[in-house]
Design a protein that fits this description.
The chain is mainly α. It has twelve helices and no strands. The radius of gyration is 19 Å and the shape is globular. The two termini are 32 Å apart.
């Protein structure tokens, strides 16, 4: 088991390099797809800018603070989507029976599924969000301490891992309900749309759900609250954002169990 884990990064890299080479064989097409991906994600932040043309604060957040919230959510989802987003296609593989090929190769089925059709154009989202992040940090008024800098850096990793685990959980659910990719997308992409806004604008039931049921609040909201020195909702401690890495580990463990359960349930198409 330990040996398989240690080999996994090299195996995954080997798989995505093949897809990257195929994409870069047509550089002009790749550049156009990347630019279009960036332009599509830009529209999300334009909506925030338009909103702040009429107000100065939203849910207790200024424009610069909203930009930080938006950027951290988009970078986390964009990174997870780039690395594991292809797993949403597992339902198609299961339906056609082509998933069988993954089970007879000397590479874990999860790695093959995550790397399937690796889309380098998905770099557009984190690149665009990274630009917003730089602008936000240059305009935000924060007393930067070592703890806050570390919290912000850790939140990018933890948030990406949480979203990646949600992609894996969505893929695992497709072993039970093959045509459920859109349901999984409502949690991942829909979750990013939710976390780019202050959660206090939603009802307490929503805040509890994204804290204790599907922990999207730990992707960026609670870490950003800690960085900005803002109080947490629901009477939770202000340091709750520090739990993001632990939540990420728990989500990975849950996703691993779900994926293995899905593999055990898989019976091919019978053809």
């Amino acid at each position: 088991m330990v040996e398989r884990i240690l080999r996994a990064p090299a195996q995954y890299w080997m798989l995505i390099v093949m897809w990257i080479r195929s994409v870069l064989a047509y550089p002009a097409s790749f550049v156009l797809m990347l630019v279009s991906s960036i332009l599509v994600t830009v529209t999300d932040f334009i909506a925030v800018l338009m909103m702040f043309s009429h107000i100065t604060s939203f849910g207790g957040f200024s424009l610069a603070e909203m930009a930080l919230l938006y950027a951290t959510a988009s970078i986390a989802l964009g990174t997870a989507d780039l690395v594991t987003g292809s797993i949403e296609r597992v339902g198609e593989r299961i339906r056609t029976g082509s998933f069988d090929a993954y089970l007879i190769r000397p590479v874990p089925a999860f790695l093959q599924t995550a790397a399937d059709g690796f889309a380098l154009r998905r770099l557009g989202r984190p690149l665009q969000a990274g630009t917003v992040l730089v602008i936000a940090l240059s305009n935000i008024d924060v007393d930067w301490t070592a703890a806050r800098v570390l919290m912000l850096a850790v939140s990018f990793v933890a948030g990406s891992v949480i979203f990646a685990a949600l992609f894996a959980l969505g893929g695992a659910f497709q072993f039970i309900s093959v045509d459920s990719a859109e349901l999984a997308n409502s949690v991942t992409y829909g979750g990013q749309a939710l976390t780019q806004f202050p959660l206090t604008i939603f009802g307490k039931e929503i805040v509890r759900a994204v804290t204790f049921v599907v922990p999207l609040a730990f992707v960026n909201y609670y870490p950003v609250l800690y960085v900005l020195g803002k109080p947490a909702p629901l009477g939770l401690p202000s340091w709750i954002g520090l739990l993001s890495p632990l939540v990420a580990v728990a989500m990975v463990a849950l996703a691993s169990l779900a994926w293995r359960g899905g593999l055990r349930r898989y019976r091919s198409t019978g053809s």
